[in-house]
């Protein structure tokens, strides 16, 4: 049951087993890490952001060796602006929350340097910039804590060596309640800022949009997973019926449930901020979603 629950909670994580007390990254290792006083800096290059396992785990373990000093050391993430602005947010959030989890598990602070703060002013749609850019080493009071659990979570996080970090079952899930609260707070800050005067062109008129948050949201992944060719292989992920997801949501009594999915369009357009591999399946995704949402036994 415990393992099943862990798999349900899991979404995001990775990194290779830490070498406690390590003080230098191997030459040519990417991402690299280095000491900056008592703090450690992990550099995330654009071309290898999927593979920071060994560097991040080594850096966190090295910093933890000095965590009884004052002030406590900090795990500093050196990620350039692309980390804050990429539309590949589903890949970047796993990295962000794994690094946050590693810092908490080692009892050290966390900091983005440079922060994504300026991105909020220029391109406010990216949620990465609205999440905490620094965090204290204080253990969240709602998360049970014992040495055995901490060691198990560190080892499991750092052994999870896959670029599909959503599949990792250790590290971030332990703090899922914390991340959920932070994501909600980030979405609320985003909504308030956008509602203060975001204007969008609508033909010859200028229309003011308001952004209201749903109590819950379902990500209906479609589009690219409809691709079937020799390089990607057949569709094998399938779809979770909405009825199954709603079974878990109903006890929470949400007032509204939003659905995020591929643009449900007949054909692609340059006006759409989406990938061709997604929008070209818009009609198929529309039909699947419509059929799935229709009450059983009801004709079209």
From TrEMBL:
Signal sequence range: 1-24
Keyword Signal among UniProt keywords: yes
Top-level taxonomic group: Eukaryota
Key words, A-Z: Signal
UniProt name for this protein: Uncharacterized protein
